[in-house]
From TrEMBL, chain A:
One of its GO terms (cellular component) is protein phosphatase type 2A complex. Residues 34-43 have a biased composition (Low complexity). Residues 24-33 have a biased composition (Basic residues). It comes from the Eukaryota. GO terms for biological process: signal transduction. Residues 1-43 are annotated as: Disordered. Belongs to the phosphatase 2A regulatory subunit B56 family. It comes from Cyprinus carpio carpio. This is Serine/threonine protein phosphatase 2A regulatory subunit. GO terms for molecular function: protein phosphatase activator activity. Signal peptide: none annotated. It holds the Pfam family B56.
Automatic annotation (TrEMBL), chain B:
SUPFAM superfamilies: ARM repeat (SSF48371). GO terms for cellular component: cytosol; nucleus; protein phosphatase type 2A complex. Keywords: Repeat. This is Protein phosphatase 2, regulatory subunit A, beta a. Residues 276-357 form the Phosphatase PP2A regulatory subunit A/Splicing factor 3B subunit 1-like HEAT repeat domain. It comes from Cyprinus carpio carpio. The keyword Ion transport does not apply.
Amino acid sequence: SALAMSSAATTPPSVDKVDGFSRKSVRKAKQKRSQSSSQFRSQGKPIELTPLPLLKDVSAQEQPELFLKKLQQCCAVFDFMDTLSDLKMKEYKRSTLNELVDYVTVSRGYLTEQAYPEVVKMVSYNIFRTLPPSDSNEFDPEEDEPTLEASWPHLQLVYEFFIRFLESQEFQPSIAKKYIDQKFVLQLLELFDSEDPRERDYLKTVLHRIYGKFLGLRAFIRKQINNIFLRFVYETEHFNGVAELLEILGSIINGFALPLKAEHKQFLVKVLIPLHTVRSLSLFHAQLAYCIVQFLEKDPALTEPVIRGLLKFWPKTCSQKEVMFLGELEEILDVIEPTQFVKIQEPLFRQISKCVSSPHFQVAERALYYWNNEYIMSLIEENSNVILPIMFTSLYRISKEHWNPAIVALVYNVLKAFMEMNSTLFDELTSTYKSDRQREKKKEKEREELWKRLEDLELKRSLQSDGIIPT
Amino acid sequence: MAGADSDDSLYPIAVLIDELRNEDVQLRLNSIKKLSTIALALGVERTRTELLPFLTDTIYDEDEVLLALAEQLGNFTMLVGGPEYVHCLLPPLESLATVEETVVRDKAVESLRKISHEHSPVDLEVHFEPLVKRLASGDWFTSRTSACGLFSVCYPRVSSTVKAEIRQHFRTLCSDDTPMVRRAAASKLGEFAKVLELEYVKSDIISLFTALASDEQDSVRLLAVEAGVSIATLLPQEDLEALVMPTLRQAAEDKSWRVRYMVADKFSDLQKAVGPEITKNDLVPAFQNLLKDCEAEVRAAAANKVKEFCENLPEDSRETIIMTHILPCVKELVSDTNQHVKSALASVIMGLSTILGKDNTIEHLLPLFLAQLKDECPEVRLNIISNLDCVNEVIGIRQLSQSLLPAIVELAEDAKWRVRLAIIEYMPLLAGQLGVEFFDEKLNSLCMAWLVDHVYAIREAATCNLMKLVEKFGAEWAQNTIVPKVLGMANDPNYLHRMTTLFCINALSEVCGQEITTKHMLPVVFKMSNDQVANVRFNVAKSLQKIGPVLDSNCLQTEVKPVLEKLASDQDMDVKYFAQEAISGRIKKMKRNRK
């Protein structure tokens, strides 16, 4: 909002004489490009910071004290939407932050116990803020540019400083845990909703370091991520940092001890799998699939619930998502154990048979590519007596009627492969194809018949209860 | 149901259950949607003993199927044998109330709420309340979330011991570990408070409200705002200040804009709930702050409430408060940097004139209206235009038009066609109140100019506008002022303008009557049947069909018919088609007349 103010001041009101149905991207271009947090409630007087000497210019004994003073100065937060205010002081804070970054990287013996609360305070003052409203109710990740954080020149250095601090050799988690606590982590996690990808990238590193160094916070972090995801899936469908959080989880899952705890399995089935239902899946699907496969490599017995979950949430109308699901399924099949495959093959291939006959050629094509995968082929071959009858009807039909010649060609190859695999069954299915169809039609008719009779009955009873015909 | 026994045997449950188990989701869905038919076929006994257990056991299905099931079960009371047996429906609904998908769960809760009323007080304690308790202490957040919506329906009808338990469960959920559950509890807090005895509202609800309103998550805090409004309506005036106001004041200044937005959004309800004294002392400054909030979203929400807030101010101090506290903020919002804020204001600002009366409106509001009428954002201009009538009532049309006319003339030529359209739609009203003379002098030329607008929708609206004007000013006026101009356009080099003549004739013939139509319009239409553009010619055919009813049958036979016949042999396919349509349409009509 504050930016709208500055742009209104610099650009003249738009004079468009033509009636416009301009493209969204064109319209958007006029809108704000960057934004600031909504923390500047009352722009008070200008901020005055008294310049301090450089740390390298004072004696080693004086350094810790000066370090604290500089941290305190950096708690002052500037309004970056107002590009003209406090220019000198903004520059002073920038150079001080730069100095602090260098200082924690190279110095030794600077980290006194008193420094910890001051560092955390400075970081908190700068990064924790209410994120501003976003335009993203119509945000299209394919077309729209993310809105960038205006105060990035300072914010970046604060993040940089904090990471160096966490990574410093002198850093002692046992002292820091008094200040980097659950409340701190909670606020940190909320920032992952930032629209600025640069900020989310830094946050990812910060959270990863905290997860690595603070054992006591691990369960809490996982639980809060759980909550963020559940809210994302079931309440808002909006959270910008899902991909980043999943990326961190990918490495966390990698480190889970075996056997997996019930809590972790629940996370897989009740949180990760439902994440597939979200509209914006494409924004984090790669990271999500990675997490899923990590789980399955840890514990193959989870294959069945995972695949059943995917089948339950299989996209009904969005072909683009269907292609993603097929891709993920192939990744899973790549690592599946034959014993697990047998457990799930029937529902799985019923779905694949539907995909293969999808009128959307990209879906059909993606499913048919499974037959190029040697490992999957070997699994199919071992179980052809089960899979072939499931697939046959679809394949046979498409080979006759799909509109896309490339699909028809692929289907011929698949049919040929099946024929070579199990020619007896193949011939049998071919010869009974017609009679099977007729049997299906007959069943269909019987069903209609049944419902018709039931409806008649219902009608009769309602007439009876209305007293129109005698009981 | 004695006579139904023989029918029942026709439909063994196995067949029906087979349908419910079909591999095809669509078929399962169809069967579930006809679950009442199945139950009817089975009869109440077998529905209870066979169908319901089956449904309870097979709850793992597609969410779409579950949703249909949850809905059906809410209407199943008679199918299981009436209120006496309604508790049989609880097990499947309990499972549905624990599933992940929100829509399914919500529907299950809705159905549970519905059938709760059909339970006898005893059954409510024996069957329903234990279910609520089980849900409230479920492992996974979904069941606890569902439980939140069930407390208020059973509380009023159970014994005081059970009531105490229910209050305890609700308290626990308000401080649940997961924010999802706290959100659910916060959103049901107001409804629960309403069924509680006042002493418990004061002792229990207030502390829960205070805690939720200072939750660490803003998504919880913002839901507490609405609850706060409900609670405020329940408390006696003297308790409000101590029990709810501190929390509400804090919400109005919350650091999260979402919470402040919620306060702005609920402001009118809040105002009604707390009464005039608190409004004067607390809400007025709070409202000022919201109108000046740093986030545009909050300002827009507050701007939307300006009229309602002012309307509901206590009468004795209303004008003073508006003039000294609200109007200065409103003036600033008129030139806000954000168009949503301005547009929200524009949609209500005109309503202030009735509250402030004529003199204040002219002195203070008119300049604001004029500024918004000239706003660069079309939505703002539109909102002002479409509310002109409420100002009209206060200051009179003459005053209004004198000050607004220049702006209206400017908008009549606005670059955005939707704005022009809105102005056109306002014309008949303006014309009716200004009278013929004023209209002819100031607005007539505008109305004619729209007929040659480059956007079809505007030309179409302009045509319709002419018809409404003639309805107001009469046929004679039409003949003298607009008909000549309309007919003149028949010679325009642009065929779109020539067609506009035809469209005008279509619209005007009936209101102008037979004489004008036959004497003045018809010859022009005939002449246009020789137009070189086929679109004009087939529109001639359509026009002739349209104005046919106004003409006498002699004229139709001797003049119209030959022209149509000529067009029916036109070389252009479309012209032929529409001419034939017109001829057959005419014949049908004549036949009908003969009968």
